[in-house]
Amino acid sequence: MSTPSNFTRRDFLVSTAAVAATTAIGGHAFAAPAALQYKPEAGAKLRVLRWKRFVQGDEDLWNANTKKFTELTGVEVRVDNEGWEDVRPKAAVAASVGSGPDVIVGWFDDPQQYPEKLVDLTDLATYLGGKYGGWYDVCRKYGTHNGKWIGLPLGVVGNALVYRESHIRAAGFDTVPKDLPGFLKLCQGLKAKNTPCGFALGKAVGDGNNWAHWLLWSHGGMLVDTKGKVVVNSPETWAALEYARQLYATFVPGTLSWQDPSNNKAFLDGQISLTANGISVYYAAKNSKEPKLQEMARDIQHAHFPIGTPGRPTELMQITQMMLFRYSKFPNAAKAYLQFMMEPEQYNPWMEAAIGYVSQPLKAYEANPIWTADPKHTVYRDSAGLMLDNGHAGPLGTASAAAMADYIVVDMVAEAASGSKTPKEAAARAAERAQRYYKA
């Protein structure tokens, strides 16, 4: 874990006229512009709402860094944690009624649903981007609206294939195939060995959305085109859904109701041998006191999803963004808190404590040693660099956020995979639902 610097309250509140400094991350030096000044309002108190952790180190270090911020600035901060599925509706309510937490750590393009309700963070985002190697393109697209930063990307909860190496070998494969036909054969082989796979098809914010969008995009399908026209009812989508039907036949029973914790539990319980998840499954097994789970951890490997007809990665991963609402009585204190949490003295130890569960939105943090300390971590390092945004191939905005929140793609895949609708029927229904948001 990184060694904290001697960071004083005076340093934190330094004037914007301060001389440029140099910050070292992972042994690499980066020129930094003059530090910004966010002087908290007198008597400021903050309330922060964020998602519940899947990795204990994440929560522990987040709370430790928050306490450190309070000690340095005198600003009391209350942190509340909600289930993944509950953050989005609570943020929407707060935006609607104009009251609630000062800062909400939300999902995907949530800020795009109510940009006028959020504080402009362009000065802070520009400062951080200039100091730490720049924002990944996908993070910039998610965080900005009409040229202004309305959300501050905290990072990407990386998503990858998590599998038992010994089980895929028993199924006749040395590694996970990198093509769609080979991947289907692997899953069929696992099923034949009674060591099936399983992917979430319920209202799973991360795991359901991530793999369902990959499935659609990997066959060349998409919800909308570059102009925002609904095009999901297409031959490419039908092919994706036929593939989903064949893949679903290899799943463990019950995936239609799976939410985000479900595949973690199924994997660790030995019910499945392959799924799509963050690094949290490996973390739980590796840090367990049970010999059986420790043995499982040694057998766990990670891989990127197969490449489909576009010939390039078509993965969706779960970006999480920090939003500061205009109704906050203490915007300066809140911006100070956001800056503090993104600086290396806090961000590096936090990312390490969570063993890379959230990967960096700023390129300089690629140098964090967490990505090479264990080769099983490395797949997650490049999450922001290879992912597509959930609006693909159209623009991000109110429509893309609403379509994602309505689980249109996940429901379409679930309907076709389970056989409750034919691929063409499921695609037609998805198009009809999408049209409500993407109005011509």
Q: Brief description of this entry?
A:
The chain has 440 residues and is an alpha+beta fold.
How many beta-strand segments?
A: 13
Instruction: Output the strand order for the largest sheet.
Output: 4-3-5-12-8-13
Q: Measured on Cα atoms, how large is the radius of gyration?
A: 22 Å
What's the CATH topology label of the largest domain?
D-Maltodextrin-Binding Protein, domain 2
Structural class: alpha+beta
Given as residue ranges, the uncertain stretches (5+ residues, pLDDT < 50) are 1-34
Strand proportion: 5-15%
What is the distance, rounded to the nearest whole angstrom, between the alpha carbons of the first and last residues?
A: 52 Å
In CATH terms, the superfamily of the largest domain is Periplasmic binding protein-like II
Query: Sheet bearing the most strands, described?
Result: 6 strands, mixed
In the CATH hierarchy, the architecture of the largest domain is 3-Layer(aba) Sandwich
Q: Percent of residues in helical segments?
A: 40-55%
Q: If you average the pLDDT, what whole number results?
A: 91
Estimate the global geometry from the Cα principal axes: globular
Number of domains: 2
The CATH class assignment of the largest domain is Alpha Beta
Number of helices: 19
